[in-house]
Design goal:
The chain is an alpha/beta fold. The protein contains 13 helices and 23 strands. The strands form five sheets. The protein has a nine-stranded mixed sheet with strand order 8-7-9-10-6-11-12-13-14, with helices on both faces. Strands 17-18-16-15-19-22-23 form a seven-stranded mixed sheet.
């Protein structure tokens, strides 16, 4: 029987009998690509079998495993993100923008893993052998016992690795370049990415190998290919960072063997990616409290230090804000490293509950160092930066802030307060503006807690009444013109 062509969405995997300009399932534009289905489903490339299934041998829930539960990669920040190490027979998907350092990090990890006594293989479908060797020489790991190969055929990979001497760690760079010869579609399509990933994950479960897949990302920042790819693997890591910054953030968004939202911090150098064991000190290197300043130079307004939590790690970072009069009818909002919708909410609360004219101005908000903050505990630090920029009153340099803001203007408590306070005290901060009334016994030595219950209390602390009076909400030009015509 002749097979009819079909069109598959490259974003979600939905199929349609004819081409359309957008996907009816996910709404993606120009994502339908023609694929030729097979009359029969493809067989696996590993071990063959008949139609009859084998009987299952059920075991008890409690028992001792035959393999070590975790293996150290040799890179502490990578082990932290993975939950304490690499789990045997697991599959890890690493995504990130082009040139962010995915291949560099994984080549370093494979070399460290092999130098620690494990066996590692690095298989590339994008580069030639000499190109990978050139990178290894630049990183200083050319002498590491890493097995290197260049191929894009999944059948060849399975044939080389599916045996008793399978390596402990295999890096596939990248999954979008791999192809199955049992499928009639091009590499990178939905069926090829899904089929190749399934075969490689089956190899990991069958041989106890740790398989790391490198994934390309779309312009929206999501891993390219079907969404089911992230559901198939055990761990999904995103490599983030700005090209203008030397910092790189490795973030876990899915982990079956550890905590999610854990991060690892790296610094890009001429010798590759270097671990940053104390990222708070690095992010605040330009504004350590107590630094001597030049005579007559005042500390700039619009900056506040936020005591955050990324996974299980406390992290201090500077939030910068600039409030400027808007020449346009619709004020401009530019946000880097935070949620723009949440900024709009904080601006509205400052206008409605504190009577400040923040929303009529252009607002520029930036999280220093290229870090992206996702927790709502940053609300108080963002509000402090906005009020400081509006009133041109600097936040005291020895102050650190955290707290969630409600629509009523009340500041709500957040979790992990003790870890945040300990990190602030370790870096030399003397005062913490926080929600609730802090218990004296819970404060670290040398750190004083200040309770902020409402945003009006924050505004009163940051600026004298005369400065706040000048910034009270004034009627807009359109309102004054309307009143004059009445």
């Amino acid at each position: 029987m002749k097979t009819q062509p079909r069109f598959a969405c490259q974003q979600c995997g939905a199929t349609a009998p004819k081409w359309t300009g957008f996907c009816y399932a996910c709404g993606a534009s120009n994502s339908m690509v023609e694929e030729l289905p097979r009359a029969a489903p493809p067989k696996g490339l590993g071990s063959g079998g008949g139609r009859g299934g084998a009987s299952l041998d059920f075991v008890a829930l409690r028992g001792a495993g035959s393999r070590a539960p975790r293996r150290r990669s040799g890179i502490a920040e990578l082990d932290r993100v993975c939950g304490g190490g690499l789990v045997a027979a697991s599959s890890i998907l690493v995504g990130g923008d082009p040139g962010i350092g995915k291949s560099t990090l994984l080549l370093q990890a494979a070399a460290s893993f092999a130098a620690d006594g494990g066996t590692a293989a690095y298989i590339t479908g994008e580069e030639a052998i000499d190109q990978v060797r050139l990178r290894a020489e630049r990183l200083g790991i050319a002498e590491s016992p890493v097995r290197l190969a260049a191929t894009a055929s999944v059948r060849d990979i399975i044939a080389a690795l599916d045996g008793p001497a399978a390596p402990d760690l295999v890096v596939i760079d990248s999954i979008q370049t791999m192809y199955l010869d049992t499928l009639d579609s091009a590499p990178g399509t939905v069926s090829q990415v899904r089929g190749a990933a399934q075969e490689l994950i089956s190899l990991a479960k069958r041989r106890g190998t740790i398989v790391v897949l490198v994934g390309h990302v779309t312009k929206e920042g999501l891993i390219a290919g079907p969404r089911i790819l992230e559901h198939m693997v055990d761990t999904v890591l995103y490599f983030e960072g700005e090209r203008g910054h030397q910092f790189r953030i490795l973030r876990a968004v899915k982990n079956r063997f550890g905590a999610t939202d854990e991060i690892g911090v790296f610094e890009m150098s001429d010798r590759g990616l270097v671990e940053v064991p104390n990222p708070s000190a690095l992010f605040l290197a330009d504004r350590a409290p107590g630094d001597d300043e030049e005579p007559g130079a005042g500390r700039a307004a619009g900056a506040a230090v936020f005591a955050g939590i990324e996974g299980t790690r406390p992290l201090l970072v500077e939030v910068q804000a600039l409030v400027a009069p808007s020449p346009l009818g619709t004020p401009r909002r530019a946000v880097v490293g935070w949620d723009a919708t949440r900024l709009a909410m904080i601006t509205a609360v400052l206008d409605a509950r504190c009577g400040l004219s923040v929303g009529i101005n252009d607002i520029y908000l930036n999280v220093a160092g290229g870090l992206r903050i996702v927790e709502p505990a940053a609300d108080l630090a963002v509000a402090a930066a906005l009020v400081s920029a509006l009133t041109e009153t600097p936040v005291p340099p020895e102050v650190v802030l955290f707290g969630e803001i409600g629509l009523s203007g009340r500041v709500r408590p957040v979790g992990h307060a003790e870890a945040r306070l300990k990190e602030a005290a370790k870096l030399g901060f003397a005062e913490a503006w926080m929600p609730g009334r802090p218990a004296t016994r819970s404060l670290p030595t040398g750190l004083r807690g200040v309770a902020i219950g409402h945003l009006s209390e924050l505004a009163a602390r940051l600026a004298p009444p005369s400065a706040l009076l000048r910034q009270r909400r004034q009627p807009s030009a359109a309102s004054r013109q309307l009143a004059a015509t009445r």
